[in-house]
Amino acid sequence: MKEYSYSEKKDTRSGFGAGLLELGRTNPNVVALCADLVGSLKMGDFIKENPERFFQIGIAEANMMGIAAGLTIGGKIPFTGTFANFSTGRVYDQIRQSIAYSGKNVKICASHAGLTLGEDGATHQILEDIGMMKMLPHMTVINPCDYNQTKAATIAIADYEGPVYLRFGRPVIPVFTPADQKFEIGKAVMLNEGTDVSIFATGHLVWKAILAGHILAEKGINAEIINIHTIKPLDEAAVLASVAKTKCVVSAEEHNRLGGLGDSIAQLLVRNTPLPMEYVATDDTFGESGTPDQLMEKYGLTENDIVAAAERVIARKNQ
Amino acid sequence: MNPHNKSTEELKQIASQVRRDIVRMVHAVNSGHPGGSLGCTDYLVSLYFKVMNYSTDFKMDGQGEDLFFLSNGHISPVFYSTLARAGFFEVSELATFRKLNSRLQGHPATEEGLPGIRVASGSLGQGLSVAIGAALAKKLNNDPSLVYVLMGDGELDEGQVWEAIMYAPHNKVDNIIATVDLNGQQIDGSTEEVLSHGDLRKKFEAFGWHVLEADGNNFETLLPALDEAKAATGKGKPVLMLMNTEMGFGVDFMMGSHKWHGVAPNDEQLQVALQQLAVEAASDY
Predict the structure, then answer these.
(1) Tens of pLDDT along B266-285?
(2) How many domains does chain B fold into?
(3) Where's the Transketolase N-terminal domain (chain B) (predicted)?
């Protein structure tokens, strides 16, 4: 198992803030919009340097999505910022009609996704957003794994023409990807080559997959670990190449089992090469209040859950 | 510069031709929304043949051009006919309205690349926000041209509209002219019965808009009102035109009733309508 080290822990939302700040300096067409959550989205530095390119919308997310769509018409590249719940479910129809169906170049940047939002509870912990967004034609869906990758993804999506959903979160987690690693939309990142099981992880679950890989290695299991930062378009070639070796699959995500990364992979397998698969995901449930770690444990999203899923799926393969 | 700059007499002829297109389009596919389309014909014809500065060589960014957004997308027949007659695409394409593989979708869309359309509409309440975004982009681009947007009065039931109504004055979006088509009708009855709006002038003024009123079915007063609206831009406030129209205007049996919101005329009714919509030199598609 390849070793990954880190010298600090940071939140992925701060990676977004840093990426946006850099875009403010390098791309004059980038503008930012926020629905009364500037601090939570780490947009302050961009606003300080570019006050004329920032639009405070107020707590009016539907209006924000429409204004963002309109700004693209004048050649701007709008980055909207609010919590993932208010970036998706609250404004699904606005995104569907004014952005996705209209092919508008809006970057929907969504923080506090998933259970790790913590104590605020289920009203704010969206676990369905990946599903909603990936179902929209034209929409690209990205869920980076750490600070560096979120910063790189933020910068990369400005150069891509089309609507993007960029999902990130609140907790501080290890920064283990290289600061200079180029972000390629739709290109999976190989973290550990293995032969016994393919673990496809996204977002906060990528680091947990690495931890799981070490535990599995101690048990003599050689796991292949791949970071799927882009859920749509899925890197189908990378997934199929991996499962051709390992013949069994675990998906890992901070999202509902219904509609998430796992479903995208399962669909790909069914259409190409049906294989045993296990999901590490929430199981058609809402979250609740608690600390992020407590919630990840209660809802089965830890490295130990990935290990257990890997052992189950390998046993199924060997039946 | 408006590419047509027609006289009032010419506008009347064009409006009748557009109304002929509307009833023929919805009749041909036995679906679509003639009522609101007929009511707003004079407004759209005024914009595209007299008031707005634009090029028929369509570019999505519309730099240096006045832009128009149709928020109540169900009145697509009047939008399509006006765009075709103004020169954005061939008039013959109106025959494809609502048919398979057409660029003229039931509600306006950009997906098929129809020139003149900048955003999809149909699900109500979204156009004002989009228009504000386009207006903000014009300000960032130092583009002094204007953004027009039309909404239905029933559409004001939607909450997003009020988010946008609050946003524009607060941010001094004064390069936008929003128009509410006050025909007093929506699908389930009159706006008064379904969800009354109260005093819209007072409401918009309380939100900080510059409000003016117009008769949307009378060029003699509509054109000066549009001039007045234009003159009111650039003064720190968004501009709102409360435009009284008659649903179904121009076809007597369609007028004044919500029943013709989304119903097509039958063969006989079409002939009656076309007789009432006489044009000196009709050029039906």
Answers:
(1) 999 999 999 999 898 889 99
(2) 1
(3) 12-280
